[in-house]
Amino acid sequence: MPCYIxxxxxxxxxxxxxxxxxTVIEDIEVLVMLPKNNSYMFSIARVAPAIEYAKQRLKIGxxxxxxxxxxxxxxxxxxxxxxxxxxxxxSCEKKPDLVLGPVCEYAAAPVxxxxxxxxxxxxxxGALASGFSDKExxxxxxTRISPSYLKxxxxxxxxxxxxxxxxxxxxxxxxxxxxxxxxxxxxVHLKLMEEYQTVHIAINTKExxxxxxxxxxxxxxxxxx
Length: 225
Ligand SMILES: *[C@@H]1O[C@H](CO)[C@@H](O)[C@H](O)[C@H]1NC(C)=O
Known about the structure:
One of its GO terms (molecular function) is natriuretic peptide receptor activity. β6, α6 and β7 form a beta-alpha-beta unit. Helix content is 45%, strand content 18%. It folds into 2 domains: 2-144, Rossmann fold; 149-224, Rossmann fold, CATH 3.40.50. The strands form 2 sheets. It has a 5-stranded parallel β-sheet, with helices on both faces. A two-stranded parallel ribbon has the order 6-7. It has 8 helices and 7 strands; from the N terminus they run αβαβαβαββαβαβαα. It has 225 residues and is an alpha/beta fold. The structure holds 2-acetamido-2-deoxy-beta-D-glucopyranose. Residues 37, 39 line the site of 2-acetamido-2-deoxy-beta-D-glucopyranose.
C-alpha cells in the first residue's frame, strides 16, 4: 500500500506543469560575519555588494539554485571573539544554515569549531592559518576559498629547490593581536622545515620598534656557528 501511494505521488508530481524536479524551493538563513570597521579590506560595507550580487545572480539565473531564498543577515565579527558571541547569540533564536566569514584567524577559529559541532557549513576567504587544515575534527565544516598560507609556502619550497638554497632565517613582526605575519610565516616555516634548516626571529615593532642592527648581528652570529 505505501508503495502504491508513492507511485501515485510520483505520477502526480510528474504531471505538475512547468516545474522541473531539479528546482528546490527553500529558505536558507545565511549569517555573514565580517568586521564593520572599514579599515579592513573585507569589511561588511566592502563585501556586502558582492554577496548581494551573487544572490541576485542565483535568483535570476534560473538554474537549480533559483528556488533558494538566501536570507542574509550581517553581524559585526570584529577581528576577535565578538564573532563567536554573535554566532551563539544569534543561534539562540534559530541556527543559521550557512555562515560566510569570519576572515580573521582569531575570529574564525571559535566560530568554525562551534559551527562544525552544529553541522553548519562555513565558507571563508580568510582563516588561512595552517591549523585550519585539520579537516578531521574541529574545522571539519570549513571551506576556504583563498589559498592557505601552507599553499602559499609551496612557492618558497619551489624557490629553495630552484636556487639550491639550504637554510632560511624567517623574520616576522608579531603584533600579538591579529598576528597576521605570525600565521603567514608559520605556513612557510612548517613547509620549509620539512627539508631545510629553518630558524626564525619574532620582533614586535609596535612595542620595540625595528632595530635592524640587532637583526644583522644575529645573522652574523648564527653564520659564525
Ligand atoms: C578600526 O580598526 C583600526 C585598525 O585596527 C583601528 O585603529 C581603529 O581604531 C578601528 N576603528 C574603530 C571605530 O573601532
